[in-house]
Amino acid sequence: MIVAGVLGFIFGGFHYTRETHSAHIGSLEFKLNRQEDVVIPLWADVTAIAIGTLLLLVGGKKR
């Protein structure tokens, strides 16, 4: 979780390409692709880092 939070903090999000439409006319093929952006909010990054740190500290203790 710590690594995911740090990566989200550094990059701020990611994007991917989604195919929305395609058409075949004879031997021709047409595709319409759309690029989607996903923004990771800062509070989610900080929360992931905090929870990861807490799990690392508390999870190592054995009773």
Task: Please explain how this structure is put together.
The protein is built from two helices and two strands, in the order αββα. The protein has one domain. It has a two-stranded antiparallel sheet with strand order 1-2. By secondary structure, the protein is of the alpha+beta class.
Structure, briefly:
The chain has helices spanning 2-11, 42-59, and strands at residues 13-25, 28-39.
How far apart the termini lie comes to 24 Å
Helix content: 40-55%
Q: Could you give a short account of the major beta sheet?
A: 2 strands, antiparallel
Uncertain parts = none
Number of extended strands: 2
Compute the number of structural domains.
1
Q: What's the mean pLDDT score?
A: 88
Number of helices: 2
- The spatial strand order of the largest sheet comes to 1-2
Beta-strand residue percentage = 35-45%
Which structural category fits the helices and strands? alpha+beta
Q: Note the run of SSEs as H and E.
A: HEEH
Integer-rounded radius of gyration: 20 Å
Global shape: elongated
